[in-house]
User: Fold this.
Amino acid sequence: MVSSLLIANRGEIACRIIRTARSLGIRTVAVFSDADADAPHVHQADQAVWIGPSPARESYLDGNRVIEAARRTGAEAIHPGYGFLSENADFADACAAAGITFVGPPASAMRAMGGKSTAKAIMADAGVPILPGYHGDGQDDALLSAEADRVGYPIMLKASAGGGGKGMRVVRDAEAFPAALGGARREAVAAFGDDRMLIERYLDHPRHVEVQVFADSHGGCIHLFERDCSIQRRHQKVAEEAPAPDLPPAVREAMGAAAVAAAKAIGYVGAGTVEFLYAPDSGEFFFMEMNTRLQVEHPVTEAVTGVDLVAWQLRIAAGEALPCVQDDIRLDGHAVEVRLYAEDPDAGFLPSTGRLTHFSMPEREVGIRVDSGVDAGSVISVHYDPMIAKIIAHGPDRATALRRLGRALEKTEVAGPATNAAFLRRIVTHPAFAAGAIETGFIEKHTADLLPERRLPGLPTLGAAVAGVLADRAAKAARQAGSSADPWSPWGDAGGWRLNGEGEERIAFRSGEVLLAVTLRYLRDGCILLTSDGIEARLAYRVDDDGMLSLGIDGVWRRVRVALDGLAVTVFDSGEIQRLSLVDPIADADRDAVGGKLVAPMPGRVVALHVAVGDSVKKGVALIVIEAMKMEHTILAPADGAVTGLPFGVGDQVEEGAELVGFESGSPEEDASA
Ligand code: MV4
Assistant:
C-alpha cells in the first residue's frame, strides 16, 4: 500500500478521499488555489500545497504544478478525484514519468474511451451492444445523409469527440437533416475543435443506467451493479440511485456482463463506469460511453454494496488483487443521492455565488450520508462547480430511502446563495418519482410541479420572519445590556424597543419586487397580533436550544429556522425556502432613486444583444445574453421601460457586477414594442 497520497482536487471529493486515506493510515497532501486557501479539504489533510491562482487552468488543471507539489511533499501517489485531471491521459503518463502512482486506469485505457467513434468500434468488437448507426471516418455531407437514410429516421447526430450533449441533434426526417448537421457541426467545432459526426438510431425517452466496474492489474474484473441516473437537467445529473428501479433481473445480469466485457476489452484497471441507454419497453440496452474515473454518484453504490470504492482504488493502484469475486457482491436495500447546488431554480438555474451565511446539514439522521466540502462561512465562487453537497439516503427499500431523503432535504439549511434544495425535495417526493416512472425527460415532463409559480410568502413565513427579526433584536439588546434577563421572549425585559403596555410597530420585507408591510401589535397576554394585507393572526414564539424557532400561529405550533444576515432573512419551513430582505427605510429610498441596475451575475462574455439604445421594451423581454461557465444567461427587462445605454458589444468580456444595460422603467411608447 502507498504510505502517502496527494489529492489533486478540491471540495467534497477531496474531503471524501482524505477520509478513506486517513482510515487506511495513509498520509494525505492537499493542493489548493488562492480561492481555497481556507477550504475544508486544506484543513483536513496532513499537508497542503499552494498551486496557483483561483482559475482552475492555473491551478487544479495544471498537471505540472500538481506533480511538483507531489515531489516537494514526497507523495507516492496522486488521486485525481473527478473532473480536472481525472481523465487526462497525458497527466497519467506524466505521473508515471515522475515515478508517482496515478490512482486511475492506464493511460491507454483512457485514450481508448476518449473518442466516441473509436469507443463504439471497440465495444462492437467486444460484443457489447451498441446503437445501430454510422461511426465511420467518411464525413462528407452526402455520405452522412445517405447513412442517415440507411439507419432510418428518427436518428440522432452526435459529435464524435463529444460529451455532455454538445453537438447533439435529434433529426426526425431527411428534410431536416442538412440544417441539423450544420448546427451540430458548428457546436462541435466550438466545443471540441472537431466537427466529425456519428449517427445513431434515436431512442425516445430512454433511461440512463450505468454499471460500476472494478478491475485489478492481475486480470480480475467484476461489477458492483448499476446506478440509474436518468434524472438530469441539461445533461447535468440531479438525482442518482442504486439499484435501477424495476430493472428485470435478466437485464441486470446482461448489463453487468456487458460492462465487464467492455472493461476487459480495453485492458482496464481500477474503478470505471460503463454508461448505457436503456429502453424499458423493449428491455434493450446500448453502450453510450465509459467514464474512466471515480464518479460523483459513487456513494449510492457504496451504500448498497457496503464497499468503500476509494479504498478499493487505493489497493488496486498499489498492485493488490480485487478483495473478492463477483458472487461476493450483494445488493443491500436501496440508495438515492441528490446534488445540492448553489443555483437559483427561479432564475433559470443560474449559478448563485457568495458566502454561506448559514449552513446546516442533516448528517446525523438515520440512513443519511452527507458528502460536502464547505463550512458555514465558505464562499461559493465563480471559479468552480457550484455543488455544495451530496445528500445520500439508504434504506431497506426504495420507499424508505425516498422518505428519508425528503425529510433530509427539509432539514437542509443553506443561506447566502440560492440553492436547489426545494426543487430536489419536490423531485424525490413526486408521485411519479415514487412510482419509479423515471426517464431522461422526467424533469421537463414535470416542470409545472417541480418549478411551481413562486408564491408570495404566506402567513407562516411572514410570522417566522417577524419572529426571527424580533428574536435577533432582543438577543442583541440583551448582549449589549449584559443582561441576564431572558432575551428570547417577545415580552422579555431586555427589549428596550417595547412600548409600555400594548405597543404597535410596523416593519416591512421585500420578496423579489414585492413589498410586504406588516403591522405588529404587542398584546398584554404576550402574543403579537400580526396584520398584513388583509390577513390577521396571533403570533407567539420561543427560541429553542438548537437555535430554531418554535412558532405559534393562532395556537398551532411549528418549528422553523430563520437565518439572518444583515438585512437578508431566509426562512426554512418544512422544505420550502423563502428569501426575504428586511426593508431598511433609508437604503430603500436610495435604491428607488437610483433604479434597478442590470448587472452581470458572474464574469463572462457578451454573446448577443437583442436591443439597441433607445428601444422601448416590455417587461420580460430578452435584452442581452452573456456566456459564463460554458452556459448562456439571458438578462431580461425587469419592467416595461427603455434601454438608455449598452456599454458592451458582442464579444466583450464583462466582470461580475458590471452594469450591462442602462435601463429606465416606464411605459413603452405605443408603437415601439413588436
Ligand atoms: C441518445 C439519446 C437517444 N438516442 N442517443 C445525451 C447525452 C449524451 N451522452 C447521450 N445522450 C443521449 N443520447 C440516442 N441514440 C438520448 C440522450 C439523452 C440523454 C441520455 C442520458 C441521460 C440524459 C439524456 C437527456 C437527453 C438525451
DSSP finds 18 helices and 39 strands in the chain. Residues 131, 156, 165, 200-203, 206, 208, 232, 235, 277, 288, 440 surround MV4 (CB under 6 Å). Confidence is low (pLDDT under 50) at residues 485-500, 586-595, 669-674.
